[in-house]
């Protein structure tokens, strides 16, 4: 008997960034020097105190099953982090630690979306989001956004595109691939519009720690009745630890904990004990120093790309991405990405990964490498496209 694949696989979106990453690794295995500006993984790794805390937990034999919602000391530390750094007071019992932000998104989707319902998202956006919505039986309605609005949705967009099938919205600030944020007044308008329509707001704050604005502020400071998604992968530089969290209204805690206990048993226990050290003053000081390093990389890359002919229609104010317009050089970002990878040895991600609206005219570059390699990458791109 030949196994028949489920129909949903026909609608699963390809994650082009990972395909580019595989090609990058293949070329590197042949001895090519490839500069990767493709995958969104910081070159920094977990802080030394985090590594030491995880090793100590392992030595103490703390790697057994834990609570489905996470160990309480970590939930309390996350809540305190929001109060100290992100301008919002949170009851620790509303914090649910998850298997990465992906685990949080999956649990939220399964808890809130019925088969046939749709979720509004901006175009461009993180490509895997649609697959989580689909896994819950829902569909995604992408709404074209423009640089004048920082490639973010507006309250007017929500009202224009809401239908009887719409369950809610999924937005990110700062966002991927653009690195742009939603202005507070606009975010307040979006939340009010969705509340009036009896839907949910799922808010991706994965890159909020890496905001370069004067003040970092969670959407919870505007409205407490949101579903917040966050992660230890980006600001805390712990990608492979697969640890994230969600903050939910009180009435959702028990249902999501019920789902988590069956689908995931518990978040990685040793990773949780290590993550407790993320919130120590010395670790925060180190992370803030690294945030400034990312800011310097952003400034260099934006200026460098503009100098060689790229247009950056909406300047990034967070995350570690630049969403660049390639119109001066090509009308096909897929083709341009292929040329730069093969001829210049620089890996970028084509616009199609983030939605069809700007697929052919945009590429994403991740400044997750040092300034010396960024300078080399800009030089290679310049020589390839302008010589």
Automatic annotation (TrEMBL):
GO molecular function, one term: transaminase activity
Membrane spanning residue stretches: none
Taxonomic superkingdom: Bacteria
Domain Aminotransferase class I/classII large: 33-381
Alphabetized UniProt keyword annotations: Aminotransferase, Pyridoxal phosphate, Transferase
Cofactor (UniProt): pyridoxal 5'-phosphate
Pfam (any one): Aminotran_1_2
Presence of the UniProt keyword Transmembrane helix in the record: no
Family classification: Belongs to the class-I pyridoxal-phosphate-dependent aminotransferase family.
UniProt protein name: Pyridoxal phosphate-dependent aminotransferase
Organism whose genome encodes this protein: Orrella daihaiensis
């Amino acid at each position: 008997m030949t196994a028949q694949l489920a129909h949903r696989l026909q609608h699963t979106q390809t994650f082009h960034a990972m395909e580019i990453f595989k090609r990058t690794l293949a070329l590197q295995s042949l001895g090519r020097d490839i500069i990767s500006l493709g995958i969104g993984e910081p070159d920094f790794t977990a802080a030394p105190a985090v590594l030491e805390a995880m090793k100590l937990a392992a030595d103490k034999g703390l790697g057994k099953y834990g609570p489905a919602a996470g160990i309480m000391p970590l939930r309390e530390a996350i809540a305190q982090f929001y109060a100290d750094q992100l301008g919002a007071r949170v009851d620790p019992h509303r914090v649910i630690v998850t298997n990465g932000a992906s685990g949080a998104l999956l649990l939220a989707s399964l808890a809130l979306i019925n088969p046939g319902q749709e979720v509004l998202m901006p175009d461009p956006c993180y490509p895997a989001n649609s697959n989580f919505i689909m896994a819950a039986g829902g569909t995604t309605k992408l709404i074209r956004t423009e640089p004048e609005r920082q490639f973010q949705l507006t309250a007017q967009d929500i009202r224009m595109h809401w239908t009887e099938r719409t369950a809610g919205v999924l937005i990110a600030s700062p966002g991927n691939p653009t690195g742009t944020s939603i202005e507070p007044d606009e975010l307040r308008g979006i939340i009010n519009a969705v509340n009036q329509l009896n839907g949910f707001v799922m808010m991706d704050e994965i890159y909020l720690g890496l905001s370069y604005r004067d003040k970092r502020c969670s959407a919870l400071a505007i409205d407490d009745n949101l579903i917040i998604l966050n992660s230890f992968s980006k600001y805390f530089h712990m990608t492979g630890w697969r640890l994230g969290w969600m903050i939910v209204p009180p009435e959702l805690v028990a249902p999501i904990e019920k789902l988590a206990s069956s689908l995931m048993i518990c978040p990685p226990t040793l990773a949780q004990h290590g993550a407790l050290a993320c919130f120590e003053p010395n670790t925060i000081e180190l992370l803030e120093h690294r945030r400034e390093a990312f800011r310097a990389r952003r400034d260099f890359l934006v200026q460098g790309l503009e100098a060689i002919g790229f247009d950056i229609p909406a300047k990034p104010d967070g995350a570690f991405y630049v969403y660049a317009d390639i119109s001066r050089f090509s009308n096909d970002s897929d083709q341009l990405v292929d040329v730069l990878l093969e001829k210049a040895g620089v890996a970028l991600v084509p616009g199609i990964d983030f939605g069809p609206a700007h697929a052919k005219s945009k590429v994403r570059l991740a400044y997750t490498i040092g300034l010396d390699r960024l300078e080399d990458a800009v030089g290679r791109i310049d020589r390839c496209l302008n010589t």
